[in-house]
Amino acid sequence: MISTEWLTAGRRLKVLVGHYGSGKTELAVNMALRLAQTARTMLIDLDIVNPFFRSAEVKPLLQENGVEVVYPAYALSGVDIPILPAEVERAFTTDGYCVFDVGGDDDGAVALGRYHAQFSACPADVYFVVNPFRPRTARVGQALALMEAIERRARVPITALAVNANLGAETTAEEIRAGRDFVSRLAEESGLPVAFEAGGEEALAPLPAVWPQLPIRRYLTPEWMKWHE
């Protein structure tokens, strides 16, 4: 069993940003479910760009496990009106944890910029989710440029890196090792620490731990892309 005690450390607001398809939403769902085992937890879907793979899709599961879910009024409706709910404000004034699932790239980060004053008063742990097998983060220079663009649009500083190196069900220990090498270089170039490494527990278990680990279960992917358990 992999320990996740590190997850309750740090700031109570936890924000996930990164490239499209890097796995932010999957990580947000898994983080919220684990945090809800220890304290009241909210998951806020701030994705105003991508209508697919939203945390709102698993709202019943999250609610059954004690997670309050907040998302744009027209999420999953097919209506392209990115209205953010007033309930987001409660994340900054209530107790407990709150996980923010932010839309991909710098376009998605615009939603964070709307809460610049609130994040200034109540700082968050802001994780840049890195999957080096995605096109816009395949090279260190690309990832650095994307991080800079996200910070500029979000007006919130990235505080750490989150490793999510994977090729879906095809992921092997070799891909995880390659991801570690990549993120180690990115951490050195950016000056940011690595907060945690995510992956299927069976894939992570045989490898020596380099950073804190977040074993995940895939809730949003189609059946043919799920991890073999």
Give an account of the 3D structure.
The chain has seven helices and eight strands; from the N terminus they run E-H-E-H-E-E-H-H-E-H-E-H-E-H-E. It has helices spanning 24-35, 59-64, 105-113, 116-121, 140-154, 173-190, 201-204, and strands spanning 13-18, 41-46, 67-70, 97-102, 125-130, 160-163, 194-199, 213-215. The protein has an eight-stranded parallel beta sheet with strand order 3-2-4-1-5-6-7-8, sandwiched between helices. Helix 2 links the parallel strand 2 and strand 3. Helix 3 packs parallel to helix 5 (140-154). It is globular and about 45 Å long.
Offer a few descriptive terms.
alpha/beta; eight-stranded parallel sheet; 7 helices; 31% helix; disordered C terminus
Provide a concise account of the structure shown.
The chain has helices at residues 24-35, 59-64, 105-113, 116-121, 140-154, 173-190, 201-204, and strands spanning 13-18, 41-46, 67-70, 97-102, 125-130, 160-163, 194-199, 213-215. The chain is of the alpha/beta class and 229 residues long. The two termini are 15 Å apart.
